[in-house]
Design a protein that fits this description.
This protein has about 210 residues and is an alpha/beta fold. The chain has a single domain (about 5-180, about 190-200), classed as Rossmann fold, CATH 3.40.50. The protein contains 7 helices and 7 strands, in the order H-H-E-H-E-H-E-E-H-H-E-H-E-E. The radius of gyration is 16 Å and the shape is globular.
């Protein structure tokens, strides 16, 4: 899995296979939570967008202002061409650990599988800290960091629940993993059968811990 932390891997992958691919979940699987935490008029950053259909599906559902970044120049160029008829969708090559945006730019930052990819790379602990710090910086005072991950709370909350560094409260939800067989749908309590959604809310009133 270490390759997921390398830009060269992603450039090669997107060159060989430019077709859209969604890690973990399609929009339909997480739509209820996105509708709960993200408003249609919000200014959104898709961090580590890849060639997921998530941005397109959200756009079709009324979320029109989405900036998409990815470390791979290959996929960004592909997406610029693919969505050239949708000018409110922006595409930029950028590393999530060093965001080239002013403070308090976005209402929401969405990271589907991106946190897990950063954790696969060298210096992962430091890079996750940089990622979270940058997200906290570019979020507005009442902004939300919306994370989709395979990582269990016992692990991921160690990176996210740092009140001295990030001014947000964290809540956790689960969604069933997609499955080809309806008869094999696992229960939400089955840790191996779910993905986790971590909602890091700034300026919230929720008291946790």
């Amino acid at each position: 899995m270490a390759q997921y932390g390398k830009t060269s891997y992603w450039d090669e992958r997107y060159t060989k296979d430019p077709e859209p691919f969604d890690w973990y979940q399609r929009y339909s699987g997480i739509r209820d939570f996105i509708n709960q935490y993200v408003k249609r008029e919000d200014v959104i950053l898709m961090a580590g967008a890849g060639n997921s259909r998530l941005t397109e599906d959200m756009f079709e559902d009324g979320y029109s202002t989405i900036t998409n970044i990815d470390v791979s120049r290959v996929v960004i160029d592909q997406q610029i061409e693919r969505y050239k008829d949708k000018p409110t969708l922006q595409w930029q090559q950028m590393n999530v650990t060093a965001l080239d945006f002013p403070d308090e730019t976005f209402d929401v930052v969405i990271a589907k599988a991106t946190l897990d990819a950063v954790l696969c790379g060298e210096g992962s602990t430091a890079n996750v800290a940089k990622f979270c710090s940058e997200v906290s910086r570019v979020l507005k005072p009442t902004g939300v960091f919306f994370i989709v991950s395979y990582g269990v709370p016992d692990n991921r909350l160690n990176y996210l629940e740092k009140e001295d560094l990030y001014s947000w409260n964290v809540s956790v939800h689960t969604v069933p993993k997609p499955t080809v067989s309806a008869a094999a749908v696992p229960s939400a309590e089955d840790a191996n059968g779910v993905h986790y959604i971590y909602i890091c809310s700034k300026g919230g009133t929720a008291e946790e811990g």
